[in-house]
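[audit] Reproducing an earlier prediction to check determinism. Same input, same settings, fresh worker. If the C-alpha cells differ from the archived copy the diff job will pick it up downstream; this log only records the rerun itself.
[audit] input (297 residues):
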Amino acid sequence: MLNEYAENNENSNLLPGTAELNEKNAQNKFYDTLFPHMSLDRIIVWISFFQILIYILSCLLSENLTVPNVDVLMFLGATYGPSIKQGELWRLLFPIFLHANWWHLIINIICILNLGLVIETKYKKKRFLLIYFLSGFIGNTLTTICNPCQLAVGASTSGFGLIGCSIMEIFLAWKNLSKKAQNYYMFNISIFLVFFLFVSFSPTVDFFGHIGGFVCGAFLACHYNKFLGYDMYTQKREKNSEKNSGKKIEKKKIAKKIKLLIIFQECLHYGFASICALIIFYLPLRLFVLNMPCEFV
C-alpha cells in the first residue's frame, strides 16, 4: 500500500494520509487537527453516531437522562464472564457500543474519531473495520479471561487498538516521516495514551481490555505494513545513492541492515499474532475449566 502511495505522490516520505501536513495551504485549525479527514463518508463517523444513539437508548431504558444502570447495560450486552460461559458470545463484541456515563462516551468518541479518521483514510473501510472490531473483540476476551466477574463496557478496547496500530506504524517508518508529521502523530497519540493509561488504574476502568486492544492493533499494523520498514529504507538508500553517485555504498552492509529489519519486523508480526491467538484459545479454558468466583448479576 505504501509503495502505491509513493509512486503516485511527491510526499512519498510520509505515511498515506499525512501528505496534507506538508501542504502550504493546509488549514492549521484546532478542528482540523482534532478531526482530520472528517466526512460523512467515513464509517467511523457513523459508528460514533450509533454509539451516541445507543447511549441515549440505554439512559431512556434506565429512566435516567444521564447514566444507564447496570441492569440495562447487562441487558444490552455488557461483557460478563458467567453470561459468556452460557454461550452469549455477542458480549465479546457488543460492549464497544455501550458506555457507563457521558464522560466515558465523549472521551472515547474523541479518541476513535481523531485516530480512526486517519487510519480509515489510509486502509479504507474493510481493513479499518477489521482493526476496530477485532481489537474490541480481543480486548473484551482478555477482560473475560483476567477478570471474568467484571461488568465491562466501552469503546476504549477498540480505541486502544487504533492507538496500537498508529504507534506501531509510526515506529516502523519513523525516520521516513517529515518532522511535521512526526510532531502531529506524537502529540495526538501521547495525549490519548497518557490519558488512557492514567484512567486505566481506576477500579472502574477495563485495564485488561485496553491491553488486549492495543496488542491486536499493533499486530494488524505489522500485518498491513509487513514490508514498510525495509521497503522505505531501501527507497531512501536508493535516493541517497543517486545524489551521491560519486560515493560507493557498500551493498553488503545495506543488505545486512535490510535483512535485520526483515527479521525484526517478522518477530514483531508473529509475536503480536501469537499473543492474540493465545488470548482467543485460552478463553474456553478460563470459562469451562478454571473456577469462576462469581454468579449472574
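[audit] rerun output stored. Observation attached for the diff report: The first helix runs from residue 2 to 8.
[audit] end
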